[in-house]
Specification:
The protein is mostly helical. 61% of the residues lie in helices and 0% in strands. It has a single domain, classed as 3'5'-cyclic nucleotide phosphodiesterase, catalytic domain (Catalytic domain of cyclic nucleotide phosphodiesterase 4b2b), CATH 1.10.1300.10. One of its GO terms (molecular function) is hydrolase activity.
Length: 232
């Protein structure tokens, strides 16, 4: 999916949120920055962390928006949370794969500052993006909880969408040998299932059971696949 194929509402949403966050640059500059971001999200090497994922996270934020204090900043953080991405940049998928939250946070602060967004707001967006490194927000930080929950909401998808998510993630990391990928994916799922809760916001908690069912089913399948591979 390229920028020309992106949902039409994305740029309108970007313009609205930048304005609400205090951007003072001309609309043409704000629009150009949003289009450059869509270019990053539209890189053809992305199979899951693409424009569809961006749109999905923004939609999920909107589902939880009544719990946020600064919704425009949460949405802007969603725009930047996977802006810098390279599936081949890290040695192990288990180490967060290609997402570079630190670099994405810096990009957010640089670009939003250039658009005239105030220092406190740009810093806050950077903090929200960086928080996705661990997906373990302070439960009293509702904006952070909503962003983390929106990013993980795909885990609670209906079965066919979850199956597509699993397929797309594997394709995104196709360069990783099967045995290594299975080991890393099993480790990630096991760590997620060991958490007391996957979602931190009150409304996001409604996704808990579906997410755990999907993860447990995938873990069972992957464990069987890994066993078969080791005996081959």
């Amino acid at each position: 999916m390229g920028v020309t194929d992106a949902p039409q509402w994305l740029i309108s949403s970007w313009l609205r949120d930048c304005t609400q966050a205090g951007a003072t640059a001309p609309e043409s500059e704000i629009r150009a920055t949003g289009e450059r971001l869509l270019d990053l999200w539209s890189d053809p090497t992305r199979r899951f962390h693409d424009v569809r994922h961006l749109a999905d996270v923004l939609n999920r934020v909107d589902e939880l928006v009544e719990e946020t204090h600064e919704p425009a900043l949460v949405r802007l953080a969603a725009w930047y949370h996977g802006a810098i991405f390279d599936a081949a940049v890290k040695a192990a998928y288990a180490n967060r794969g290609g997402e570079n939250e630190t670099a994405s946070a810096l990009l957010a602060q640089e670009e939003l500052s250039a658009l005239g967004v105030g220092e406190e707001s740009t810093r806050r967006v950077g903090e929200l993006v960086t928080a996705l490194l661990r997906h373990s927000p302070d439960t009293t930080d509702y904006d952070c909880a909503v962003l983390c929950d929106a990013d993980l909401a795909v885990l609670a998808s209906e079965p066919q969408k979850y199956k597509a998510y699993v397929r797309d993630v594997r394709e995104e990391y196709a360069h990783i040998p099967t045995a290594d990928y299975l080991r890393a994916r099993i480790a990630i799922i096991t760590k997620l299932l060991s958490r007391e809760s996957l979602f931190s916001s009150p409304l996001g908690a409604a996704w808990e059971d579906a997410a755990r069912q999907n993860l447990q089913a995938e873990l069972q399948r992957l464990t069987k696949e890994a066993a078969n591979l080791s005996h081959a």
